[in-house]
């Protein structure tokens, strides 16, 4: 078989079957994945969450993961933010002619491993091969379905004055990792992506309380952008305490050199949670017992003042308005 993906692999003939068998069936095989035109799934009565997302990260592999792992985590986490247990995923690949076959297998293997960790089934997929230069190496689109727990009712419009603002770990690591991986600034930093599936972390929170108002995945634009979105949706103000925001030392160093704010760098394994202050301690304690949220922390509170704005108390006690992000922060980070 060819060592690279060719146009013939996308033509629907023998080479397409060989590609599917060698790469995708080898890693995604399960009772729900068939050769028919659509997967047939059992659906129980109740509410479901349904989401889709495209992934075009550059570079497609980075310290802590690759585009395959990222595609599973991104969709699983979007479902989890709605209090939904991820159940099924579909995935669509657009692959550039000449893409190395061994790299495609690494991507599929990462997807297999991450889906297994998240407890989600890949039920259907599609593969297209684009001509040289028509696509940048590989793009993946995933769609997910999850079953929402009866006790879960979350939305960016549900934040209330008096809520605590919680993050599940240090911020900005994925965006910083991609920046360093591009090697455009000659920076050598020991930083890896926080990319991780977070359903278990969400379930752990609900095991201690169902009084959770907002859960959001801080991807493009990072925590800062998510906070502005929620402040606008709920028509509330948000006050942050700069000293309580967890930031990895390497991320802080890179941001210091380049004049970047870690709050605006993408995360791929961090959630922002709004819940009543009296529940915050229990939520943080539950999160700290889970993998990928050991450094969870309360970083601020919701107020009735400064509706639609985010204010930060600095290390010297001054209050400053966190600027709303505009323009392109970092291209192709997810």
Characterization of the model:
The protein has 334 residues and is an alpha+beta fold. It is globular and about 65 Å long. The protein contains 8 helices and 13 strands.
Q: Main traits of this protein?
A:
13 strands, four-stranded mixed beta sheet, 8 helices, 334 residues
Strand order of the largest sheet: 8-10-7-11-9-12-13
Give the proportion of residues in helices. 25-40%
Spans where pLDDT lies below 50 across 5 or more residues: none
By DSSP (H or I, 4+ residues per run), the number of helices equals: 8
- Give the helix/strand class: alpha+beta
What percent of residues are in strands?
15-25%
Got a strand count? 13
Secondary-structure element series: HEEEHEHEEEHHEHEHEHEEE
Q: What value does the Rg take, in angstroms?
A: 21 Å
Q: Distance N terminus to C terminus?
A: 31 Å
Please outline the major beta sheet.
7 strands, mixed
Residue-averaged pLDDT, rounded?
A: 94
Quick rundown:
The protein has helices spanning about 15-30, 65-80, 100-120, 175-180, 200-210, 220-235, 250-260, 275-290; strands at about 50-55, 60, 65, 85-95, 120-130, 140-150, 165, 215, 235-240, 270-275, 295-305, 310-315, 320. It is α+β, with helices and mostly antiparallel strands.
């Amino acid at each position: 078989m060819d060592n690279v993906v060719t146009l013939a692999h996308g033509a629907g003939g023998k080479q397409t079957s060989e590609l599917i068998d060698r790469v995708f069936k080898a890693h995604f095989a399960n009772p729900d994945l068939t050769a028919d035109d659509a997967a047939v799934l059992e659906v129980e009565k109740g509410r479901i969450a349904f989401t889709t997302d495209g992934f075009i990260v550059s570079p497609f592999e980075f310290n802590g993961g690759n585009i395959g792992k990222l595609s599973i985590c991104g969709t699983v986490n979007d479902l989890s933010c709605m209090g939904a247990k991820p159940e099924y995923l579909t995935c669509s690949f657009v692959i550039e002619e000449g893409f190395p076959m061994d790299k495609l297998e690494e991507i599929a293997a990462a997807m297999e491993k991450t889906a297994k960790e998240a407890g989600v089934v890949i039920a259907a997929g599609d593969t297209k091969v684009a001509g040289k230069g028509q696509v940048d190496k590989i793009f993946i689109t995933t769609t997910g379905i999850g079953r929402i727990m009866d006790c879960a009712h979350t939305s960016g419009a549900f934040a209330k004055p008096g809520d605590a603002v919680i993050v599940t770990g240090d911020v900005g690591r994925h965006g910083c990792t991609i920046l360093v991986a591009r090697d455009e600034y000659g920076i050598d930093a020991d930083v890896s992506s926080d990319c991780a599936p977070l359903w278990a972390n969400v379930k752990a929170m609900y095991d201690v309380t169902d009084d959770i108002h907002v859960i959001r995945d801080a991807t493009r634009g990072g925590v800062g952008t998510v906070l502005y979105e929620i402040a606008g949706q709920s028509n509330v103000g948000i006050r942050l305490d700069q000293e309580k925001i967890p930031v990895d030392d390497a991320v802080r160093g890179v941001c210091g050199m380049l004049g970047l704010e870690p709050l605006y760098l993408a995360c791929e394994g961090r959630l922002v949670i709004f819940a009543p202050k009296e529940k915050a301690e229990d939520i943080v304690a539950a999160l700290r017992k889970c993998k990928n949220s050991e450094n969870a922390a309360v970083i601020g509170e919701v107020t009735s003042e400064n509706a639609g704005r985010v204010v930060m108390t600095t290390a010297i006690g001054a209050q400053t308005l966190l600027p709303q992000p505009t323009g392109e922060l970092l291209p192709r980070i997810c």
